Amino acid sequence: MRISLLNRSARAFTILEIVVAMVVAMLIVGVAVMSLKGVDRESKIRRIAAQLEWTARASMRDALVRRQSQCIRFASDGFATSAVGSSLRWKRLPKGGQLEVRRWGDTRWRKPGEGESWWFHPGMPCEPLAVRFALPEGRYEMTFDPLTASVMQEGLAVNP
Questions:
Q1: In Å, how far are 20, 56, 111 from 64, measured between CA atoms?
Q2: Could you say which of 43, 81, 111, 160 is the most buried, measured as most Cβ atoms within 10 Å of its Cβ?
Q3: DSSP letters for the chain
Q4: CA end-to-end distance (rounded Å), the chain
């Protein structure tokens, strides 16, 4: 009777069971790391889009409050904001990034032309506009509401 109790308590995990448990744990960690990389890429794209949305809403507000036209100028690598007669403050896209626009009536995306601007006049709606950021991390498209200059439609595609 005493011998059978010792045999039962002396049992342990086999090497095979330990290896299987470690492989499963490594798979779970690998999936989690890949998910976090996607979240990091997504947040980088959204941060740039949020800067443009904030700039558009601030330009609309400033046009109303100051009773002075405001504009956002576009380039293929960024955008800038200014009041009439003031200096430009450029926000550049990360290396390899491209900005494209689609204005009212355009059927396809295109790079902004030289000195292309989006105007905000006091007491008037702005022009309906869609902007797309193509970055190495992915692509983000946003369509602005002409009454509030806030994003009314958006789309995000993150590269693997």
A1: 66, 13, 29
A2: 81
A3: -HHHHHHHHT----HHHHHHHHHHHHHHHHHHHHHHHHHHHHHHHHHHHHHHHHHHHHHHHHHHHHTS-EEEEEETTEEEEEETTS--EEEEPPTT-EEEEEETT--S-BPPPTT-EEEE-TTSPPPPEEEEEEETTEEEEEEE-TTT-SEEEEEEEE--
A4: 61
Tell me: the pLDDT tens digits for 108-156?
Answer: 999 999 889 999 999 899 899 999 998 888 889 999 999 989 999 988 8
Between the alpha carbon of residue 57 and those of residues 71, 77, 141, 144, the distances in Å are 11, 21, 17, 10
CATH architecture of 11-158: 3-Layer(bab) Sandwich (3.55)
By C-alpha distance, which of 158, 154, 156, 155 is closest to 136? Answer: 158
Answering whether pTM is above 0.85, one says no
